[in-house]
Write a structure and sequence with these properties.
5-stranded antiparallel sheet; 6-stranded mixed sheet; Jelly Rolls; about 25% helix; Immunoglobulin-like; globular; Rossmann fold; 4 domains; about 600 residues
Length: about 600
């Protein structure tokens, strides 16, 4: 096993060496916001505005960006251009124009209009779309036209986005949103997808998608302290702050306090839910923060000394391998000097689907071509659920970290629920439409009972959901081996072995099993006990039953009384005869007790 792992690892490392860790020259981000009338219910406080302003403040200088609103029509509310102070001012004005008055939801046109100029790929640019909507494709009152537009997005639009190298990061702000469509856009383009449970969650979701799109360099916040090194040219501190929480204050090393009222050289963006503070040429040394402590607080930096990660997909299946590779770059070039790398500690913390921390070692490549690269391979060992990976590098003078989230899931949804009767389970299997065509799904379920018996479970198909009930009537562990096949959305045949799903069985006697008759403790005349002849189904003669039961009970009482009387008389007679049988010679005398 170790030999196999080593071979796989070396092969992986050689593949990673082929420019997997790319350094794009700049980011081009297009933000597309739904302003349809349904937003009055899903975002009644119009929290899209502060969330959009947060994004405006986070986009790095030198990037290119633009903002589009869409309903029936698509409008460019923030002109696409290079991000600088003037662009940010315009972006704040554009954010204020976000409304909820649109009549329709034309996602197809919004994608087409916002991607103008992206017809041809450009390897020097990291292209991203952040798409927010709460609804489904709705361009007309004619449902047939809506269906045609949706199909066009899943075919023509996606192919155009893939050709131009665009990654779509989509947000669904409602349970009514077309989750399948949005997730498909993310999957096919290598982007990501999030569901906002409420408008209040928008800010943190925008942050996650921004991190996915731009992969900013960050410095770890250790409690209320952080360290700025001399390579940092600019820092941006994001503090999530609930209403009525204490005001944020910063204490630079050896300098005066920085706050919203004592800004100095800093710039502050104070919105509902967060503070965003930017400082150019921050003082080198240890800083202290006095602010609300939120686990999603971030310190992002612009620096020549950067941490680069391999491209990590947002979605994988449990059977797929996942590699995490890291390098340190200085002014865009990988650092390979041993004298430098020996002073740096590389760490990887894996937070699994149950929120457990699992520190993992990042191993340095032994190949000369990959010197300076540290990696770890997860060889098909991740369970279904959301996993986070935090890569940190630390030395005595600087630290950097980056976080990526990965959703691990099968292309089918398997649900196993216990019924009210112990040992009875309801099993259902259905395709996730963003992966497989639902009507093409063909599942196979093999059941292994505790006694080793194996059988195929017969499933019924109702509206493309395969279902069955399992009677686990043996005490012990039942296992269901589930395999599925089907066609991908592109028509390619796919097969998946989902592995074993476990259930606990409970012993129950079969319905036709003869149950033992309790032993009679008293011998009675069974012929004297009357029996009741069953009446035809649906006819119950209660008068006759009452008479029979009464006579039967009276008979039993008489029999029991007679037996009691006879036994009592016999008992008295036995006691008397024992006394009678003692002769004068055997009766104890007073002398016989003397020793």
């Amino acid at each position: 096993m170790k030999l196999r792992f080593s071979i796989v690892f070396l092969l992986l490392m050689s593949v990673i060496g082929q420019n997997v860790i790319a350094d794009s020259n700049y980011n081009d981000i297009r933000v597309v916001i739904d302003v349809s009338g349904s937003m009055k219910q899903t975002d009644p406080l119009n929290l899209r505005i502060p969330a959009m302003k947060m994004l405006n403040g986070l986009v790095p200088d030198g990037s290119y960006a633009g903002v589009w609103n869409f309903g029936r029509h698509v409008n460019m509310t923030v002109k696409w251009g290079k991000v600088d102070t003037a662009w940010r001012n315009q972006a704040d004005l554009g954010a204020a124009k976000i409304h909820s008055n649109g009549l329709f939801t034309d996602i197809e046109s919004a994608l087409a209009r916002s991607t103008l100029g992206w017809e041809n790929p450009d390897t020097k640019v990291q292209r991203s779309i952040i798409l927010l909507t709460d609804g489904q494709v709705d361009i007309s009152k004619d449902s047939a036209k809506n269906k045609v537009s949706r199909i066009s997005i899943l075919t023509d639009s996606i192919q155009a986005l893939k050709k131009s190298g665009v990654k779509v990061h989509a947000i669904a702000l409602s349970k009514d949103a077309d989750e399948t469509l949005l997730k498909n856009l993310a999957l096919e383009t290598g982007g990501s997808f999030e569901i906002a449970e409420s408008a209040q969650a928008l800010q943190k979701i925008f942050l996650k998608l921004f991190e996915r799109a731009t992969s900013p360099d960050m410095i770890e916040l250790k409690g209320n302290k952080f360290t700025i090194d001399k390579s940092v040219k600019e820092m941006t501190l994001l503090i999530f702050r609930p209403k009525d929480s204490k005001a944020t204050q910063l204490y630079p090393p050896g300098e005066a306090t920085i706050s919203s009222s004592l800004k100095g050289e800093s710039s502050w963006r104070i919105e509902e839910g967060y503070d965003l503070i930017t400082i150019k040429k921050p003082k080198v040394g240890v800083w202290t923060i006095d602010a609300y402590n939120d686990p999603d607080n971030r310190l992002m930096v612009v620096t020549d000394l950067t941490l680069k990660l391999s491209d990590v997909p947002a979605y994988i299946t449990p059977s797929q391998t996942l590699s995490i590779a890291a390098e340190i770059h200085n002014k865009g070039k990988k650092i390979t000097k041993s004298s430098f790398l020996d002073l740096v500690k590389f760490d990887l913390n894996h937070i699994d689907e149950n929120d457990n921390d699992n520190p993992v070692e990042l191993a340095h490549s032994e190949e000369i071509i990959n010197k300076g690269r540290y990696a770890h391979l997860f060889d098909g060992s991740l369970s279904e659920g959301r996993h986070s990976f935090i890569v940190s590098i630390d030395s005595q003078t600087f630290n950097r970290n980056k976080r990526v989230d990965v959703e691990v899931q099968w292309p089918v949804k398997v649900t196993i629920k216990p019924k009210s009767v112990p040992g009875i389970y309801h099993i259902s299997i259905q395709a996730r439409e963003e992966y497989l065509k639902p009507d093409s799904l063909q599942p196979n379920v093999q059941i292994k009972a505790p006694d080793g018996l194996q059988l195929e479970l017969e499933l019924n198909n109702t509206a493309n959901i395969w279902e069955a009930e399992l009677n686990a009537n043996q005490a012990g562990l039942y296992q269901a081996l589930i395999q599925v096949s089907g066609l991908s959305i592109n028509g390619e045949k796919q097969q998946y072995d989902l592995g074993m799903f476990s259930m606990v069985g409970v012993y129950r006697a079969p319905d036709n099993e003869v149950k033992p008759v309790p032993e009679l403790t008293t011998v009675t005349d069974l012929d004297s006990i009357q029996t009741v002849t069953p009446l035809p189904e649906g006819k119950t003669n209660w008068k006759k039953i009452i008479i029979i039961v009464g006579v039967s009970n009276l008979t039993l009482i008489l029999i029991a009384g007679s037996l009691f009387f006879i036994l009592r008389r016999r008992s008295n007679k036995v006691d008397f005869s024992l006394d009678e049988e003692l002769s004068d010679e055997t009766k104890p005398t007073e002398e016989s007790f003397n020793v």
